[in-house]
Amino acid sequence: MAEHNKRIPMQHVVGFVLSIALTLLATWAALGSNLSTTWIISGIMILAVIQAGIQLFMFMHVVEFKSQNGHVPWNMMFHGAVLAAIIVAGSLFVMSFGFTHDHDGDDHQQHEQQEDDGQEQHDEGEHEGH
Amino acid sequence: MSSHELKTGPLEYRTQEGQMTIMGFWIFLAAEIVLFSTLFATYAVLFGRTADSTPPGELFEPGIVLIMTFLLLTSSFTCGLAIHEMRRGSVKGLLIWMMITLLLGLGFLGFEIYEFIHYTHEGATMQSSAFWSAFFTLAGTHGLHVTLGIGWAILLLIQVAKRGLTPRTSRKFFVIGLYWHFLDVVWIFIFTSVYLIGMVV
């Protein structure tokens, strides 16, 4: 609360330094490390969620209860986040069934090669790598 | 409850109207999260559907994207400082930090426009493929939000310069502060799930 009178708000500075550090860490994990793709993707997504939390808690006063009607902003953010997770994960899940077609450049080549070899094309196996 | 507060609570919370507006703005932000989540979902589903156009891995460059990220992160920080100055009652501090925020935001927009033009020249446009449509819609919607935010903040700056800090103007600035931080949150997810993953996969 005494925070408001200080010349330099430490909370903001800490939040800023942390978000820069997390960005660099995520970039390094994605481009510089030897981790497998699965680990990279889950790792950097977790880092993104942490960064979003930093913005909300350190910059956006999300836990500030000065609106004295008992309204808690983070409720709204939490519900928004849950909906977002359901929409994204749900879409990926639903669309993962039978959504195979090869407009991809690579697939075309593979397709042609396979036809040249006189083999039958197996859509499912072919799309594993994507 | 109020005995715990500073003698002068933050101006923006002093009136019932101010409290309600800020609360309403949080609801708006929650709706924005859902809006962006549909665009993220579309992007995720269409990932890799580049047809015969250039794949993202060949176009995305870490350098420019990192610069954009740092610009926006820094602008979010300076925006926080602006609101902090506002709560200390300093109009000058508020104006200066907010202008720095806007300059950083404009820098971000400049890089984004440059980036889009660059991609277009490389043959990746809205029309090229499902993937690029989803990409431009997602990144473009965020860019549009930044543009609107800049316009909005400029109008507010003029108003504060004219009227000074009142419960009304502080409430308006507090709200645009929330908006600006929120844009940064969205960008963090674009940076991670679009650019970083696009360069990895």
What does this structure look like?
The complex is a heterodimer of chains A (130) and B (201). Chain A has 130 residues and is mainly α. Chain A folds into two domains: 1-60; 69-101, no CATH class. Helices cover 65% and strands 0% of the residues of chain A. Chain A contains five helices and no strands. Chain A has helices at 10-32, 37-59, 73-95, 105-116, 123-126. In chain A, helix 1 (10-32) packs antiparallel against helix 2. Chain A is flat, with a radius of gyration of 23 Å. The N and C termini of chain A lie far apart (51 Å). Residues 107-130 of chain A have low confidence and may be disordered. By secondary structure, chain B is mostly helical. Chain B has a domain at 62-201: Cytochrome c oxidase, subunit III, four-helix bundle (Four Helix Bundle (Hemerythrin (Met), subunit A)), CATH 1.20.120. Helix content of chain B is 80%, strand content 0%. Chain B has six helices and no strands. In chain B, helix 5 runs antiparallel to helix 6. The longest helix of chain B is centred in the C-terminal third of the chain and has 34 residues, at 130-163. The radius of gyration of chain B is 19 Å and the shape is elongated. Chain B starts with 15 loop residues before the first helix and ends with a helix. Mean pLDDT of chain B is 90; it is low at 1-7. The chains are: A mainly alpha (130), B mainly alpha (201). At the A-B interface, helix 1, helix 2 and helix 3 of A face helix 1, helix 3 and helix 6 of B.
Largest sheet of chain B: none
Number of helices of chain B: 6
What ranges of chain A have pLDDT less than 50 throughout 5 or more consecutive residues? Answer: 107-130
Extract low-pLDDT stretches of chain B: 1-7
Give a brief description.
The complex is a heterodimer of chains A (130) and B (201). Chain A is an all-alpha fold. Helices cover 65% and strands 0% of the residues of chain A.
Task: Give descriptors for this structure.
heterodimer; A: 130 residues; mainly alpha; 5 helices; 65% helix; disordered C terminus; B: 201 residues; Four Helix Bundle (Hemerythrin (Met), subunit A); disordered N terminus
